[in-house]
Amino acid sequence: MSEFIAVAAVADVPVGQSIEVRYAGAQVGVFNVRGTIYAIGNICTHAYAELHDGYVDDDDCTVDCPLHGARFSLKTGHHLTLPAVKAVLSYQVKVVDGQILLAPPVE
Amino acid sequence: MTVEANELSFDYSKYGFRQEENYVFKSGKGLTEEVVRELSAMKGEPEWMLKRRLQALDIFFKKPTPLDGAWGNPDLAGLNYDDIHYFVRAGDKPATDWDAVPEEIKNTFERLGIPEAERKFLAGVGAQYESEVVYHSLREEWSKLGVIFLDTDTALKEQPEIFKQYFGTVIPSADNKYAALNTAVWSGGSFVYVPKGVHVDIPLQAYFRINAENMGQFERTLIIIEEGASAHYIEGCTAPVYSTNSLHSAVVEIIVKKGGKFRYTTIQNWANNIFNLVTKRAVAYEDASMEWVDGNIGSRLTMKYPSVYLMGRGARGEVLSVAYAGKGQHQDAGAKMVHNAPDTTSVITNKSVSKGGGKTTYRGLVKVHPGASGAKINVNCDALILDEHSKSDTIPYIEVEEEKVTLAHEATVGRIGEEQLFYLMSRGIPEAEALSMIVLGFMEPFTRELPMEYAVELNRLIQLEMEGSVG
């Protein structure tokens, strides 16, 4: 089921901002880095915290968890620092007619 | 072991002396963005580091002081962040020759026996005085093999790529309030890089000295052990006794790659007015071995839980620690082991002694993630309480999310038995000496792991602390 589903309007996520949306019941963080939209699982794999509240580094395209600082790649969902030892999901993103569409991660 | 308790003329004045303050720069009290900007500018740092510092400062201000909760401590209420100098520069740049070190500072380290120890049995030495390293050297034979042993400020300048690749990846700024503080104002510390397959078979040492009153020391240490390499690093810490508090808040990050072996030994003998709030964490990959050997004698409050993240099959972690808490002291020390790969092993051995109203706490975490099958964990905590006024707590957290795991936890708390004392005294040993022998015997699993010079010194320190404990 790799169907793309609209989750928000691009206008909801201005450049440099991030929001949380629901996709198939899961919490997903949607980030706008210099005009490109990224979507990854929004819950840190170390302890419960929402990544869309974290610090985004535009140069490296990463987000730091606001609770203990674990860093994740916005492009792949990979964990780049401790204390996280697992990646978050990375969703496929499309922008059509000003809408952000998500599909499940590619295996 | 022969104990000459009555002949000891040893006292803390060996460590407790003060030198005149003759500094190149000393920041005002309190922490502001200006202090951080000034510090970074004086060091001539790249933009990315200033950005990282300012972000960490923001995190430090936002995170509450952990006075309660799983890893909190109400004793932290005694720490006044506005009454501390965050950056004190004692010299211009690190010397590689003891003769080039300013006279008062050289005297300090000579009284502490550092240059002599270097000549005798060390591969390299770093000596930090207040905020910065004043002396650093590595024997030529090791530098020829590609070993890098620098103070961390110099490493940022001379090894920018490897530094940026690893800095903050084991302990991010937001890990806890004191890791954020350290990231905002870090200065000094050691940087060690051991290339693939190189075995540094004699220890590298760093010595950290606080001299000024109300001083904050925030050294940052980053150690990378490449595949199949090995090394041993030793740190010692002292300060003079003042009536007001100082703060020592270090961050130590260690990466041990496949098949590497590393041991980190600490003998902390801070004066009893120092808050010692340190974050130490290592990551060990496939078949790597990481050992923390951690002795805590001094300080007013120590909070330190050296950790090992076991990230590859067959990785091994060990924490062997002792804590001694006398009057007015709280040694809140422990260990964390996180198993994230199959067939990993960890051993935690913690020994603590409290006396004269002192308090020891063992706080530890063992976490086994799903998939870490075949993990073996052994936790052993022994506490010895020497009188009715002293306390000891054991707070182990164990989280296992995998079925095939072997975990043993053992804890004992006790007082010295009258029969033991009576037996020794019946052999003609005076009571004070008998007591001291029993305590040293209790700590022996720790001291036997130290290089001989340190074991002797530690035993003497414990004997000193034990004086006057009878009668």
How would you describe this protein?
The complex is a heterodimer of chains A (107) and B (471). By secondary structure, chain A is mainly beta. Chain A has one domain: 3-layer Sandwich (Rieske Iron-sulfur Protein), CATH 2.102.10. In chain A, 0% of the residues lie in helices and 41% in strands. The radius of gyration of chain A is 13 Å and the shape is globular. The two termini of chain A are 12 Å apart. Chain B is α/β, with parallel strands linked by helices. Chain B has one domain. In chain B, a hairpin with a 2-residue loop joins strand 3 and strand 4. In chain B, helix 2 runs antiparallel to helix 3 and helix 7 packs across helix 8.
Short description:
With 107 residues, chain A is an all-beta fold.
- Proportion in helices of chain A: under 10%
The largest sheet of chain B is: 12 strands, mixed
Widest sheet: strand ordering of chain A: 1-9-8
Q: Give me the oligomer status.
A: heterodimer
Number of strands of chain A: 9
Total of domains of chain A: 1
Number of discrete domains of chain B: 1
Low-confidence stretches of chain A: none
Strand percentage of chain B lies at: 25-35%
How large is the count of helical segments of chain A?
A: 0
For the largest beta-sheet of chain A, the strand count, sense and barrel status come to: 3 strands, antiparallel
Could you name the key traits of this structure?
heterodimer, A: 107 residues, mainly beta, Rieske Iron-sulfur Protein, three-stranded antiparallel β-sheet, globular, B: 471 residues, alpha/beta, twelve-stranded mixed β-sheet, ten-stranded mixed β-sheet, 24 strands
SSE arrangement:
The complex is a heterodimer of chains A (107) and B (471).
Chain A: E1 5-9, E2 18-23, E3 26-33, E4 36-41, E5 55-57, E6 62-64, E7 71-73, E8 92-96, E9 99-103
Antiparallel strand pairs in A: 1-9, 2-3, 3-4, 5-6, 6-7, 8-9
Chain B: H1 13-16, E1 25-26, H2 33-43, H3 47-62, E2 88-89, H4 103-111, H5 114-121, E3 124-129, E4 132-138, H6 140-144, E5 148-151, H7 152-158, H8 160-166, H9 177-185, E6 190-194, E7 204-209, E8 216-217, E9 220-225, E10 230-238, E11 246-248, E12 251-256, E13 261-268, E14 274-284, E15 289-296, E16 301-304, E17 307-310, E18 316-325, E19 330-339, E20 345-354, E21 359-368, E22 375-385, E23 391-400, E24 405-414, H10 418-426, H11 431-447, H12 452-466
Parallel strand pairs in B: 3-7, 6-9, 7-10, 8-11, 9-12, 10-13, 11-14, 12-14, 13-15, 14-16, 14-17, 15-18, 16-19, 17-19, 18-20, 19-21, 20-22, 21-23, 22-24
Antiparallel strand pairs in B: 1-2, 3-4, 5-6
Helix pairs in contact in B: 2-3, 3-9, 7-8, 10-11, 11-12
